[in-house]
Amino acid sequence: MSVDSDGTEEPGWDVDPEDEQGAAVVAALGRQLKTWREAAGMRVADFGARIRYGEDQVRKVESGKRIPRPEYLDRADEVLDAGGKIAAMKADLEQVRYPKKVRALAKMEAKAVEIGMYSSHNIHGLLQTEEYAAALFGMRRPAYPPDEMDRNLAARMARRSIFGRSPAPALSFVQEEVTLRRPIGGTMVLRRQLERLLEVSQLPNVEFQVMPTSLEDHAGMGGLIEVLKFVDGTAVGRSDGAFHGRPVSDPKQLRILELRYGTIRAQALTPPKSRAFIEQLLGET
């Protein structure tokens, strides 16, 4: 949680003006919060002091310019004696408090029954620890503004809920060896990331494989590949090295991505050997 110079807390993230759906939801919520506060006969300054947020920040939330964090709504509910009605608004914000592009991806991941992913540059986002992801975002040039970095990090961590889904989707990951050796964030961050990979690789619905750097014949030289399949038989795929990197759903195009991904899996280490490889790296790190 970030804190303003006056010691009060930052309530959330700025609204993306290009995200019309998200902006409409936040504006409606802001109007409701203002109505509750005014009905309680409480001034903005007094209300802000009670929930430990600055007056300017409260005004931004109520005017729909700022997306409040869940704890903002919890405190508002308590101070305004709303009986859970304000806290219940957290469900409305859940779908809009992250960047529009990430929401679209998370929505597809939430519906997929099978996902195959090959990553060649960094450890896949679904597998990242918070420390590792924060270090990656911190390396961006030009740098993210603190608010945007915080929002992107929260969105990435929220996507990890896929591992708790029931029924669980079938997940397949292939990671380049180099992504497991590069000390993003430092040695201890890498160690905890490797431990996370071992933990996830033991889940019954997860297949995790390592692509050795020493391999001569490699079907994944075009870069990242993702294929998501849905219960109705449809699918969507994406690859850095095909179709200009855009998502595709045409069966002919999907077959190309599936062929490449299937070959990559066949060329990579088996899941048991991959786990042994990570354990070896942990011993060396």
Account of the 3D structure:
With about 280 residues, the chain is α/β, with parallel strands linked by helices. About 50% of the residues lie in helices and about 15% in strands. The strands form 2 sheets. The protein has a 5-stranded mixed sheet, with helices on both faces. Strands 1-2 form a two-stranded antiparallel ribbon. A hairpin with a 4-residue loop joins strand 6 (about 225-230) and strand 7. Helix 7 packs antiparallel against helix 8.
Low-confidence stretches: 1-7
Helix and strand pattern: EHHHEHHHEHHEHHEEEHH
pLDDT averaged residue by residue: 90
Based on DSSP secondary structure assignment, what is the total number of beta strands? 7
Q: TL;DR?
A:
With 285 residues, this protein is an alpha/beta fold.
Key terms for this structure?
single chain; 285 residues; alpha/beta; five-stranded mixed β-sheet
Task: Summarize the helices and strands and which ones pair or pack.
Elements: E1 12-14, H1 20-39, H2 44-51, H3 55-62, E2 66-68, H4 70-79, H5 90-94, H6 100-111, E3 112-119, H7 130-138, H8 146-159, E4 170-176, H9 177-181, H10 187-201, E5 206-211, E6 225-230, E7 235-239, H11 251-267, H12 271-284
Parallel strand pairs: 3-4, 4-5
Antiparallel strand pairs: 1-2, 3-6, 6-7
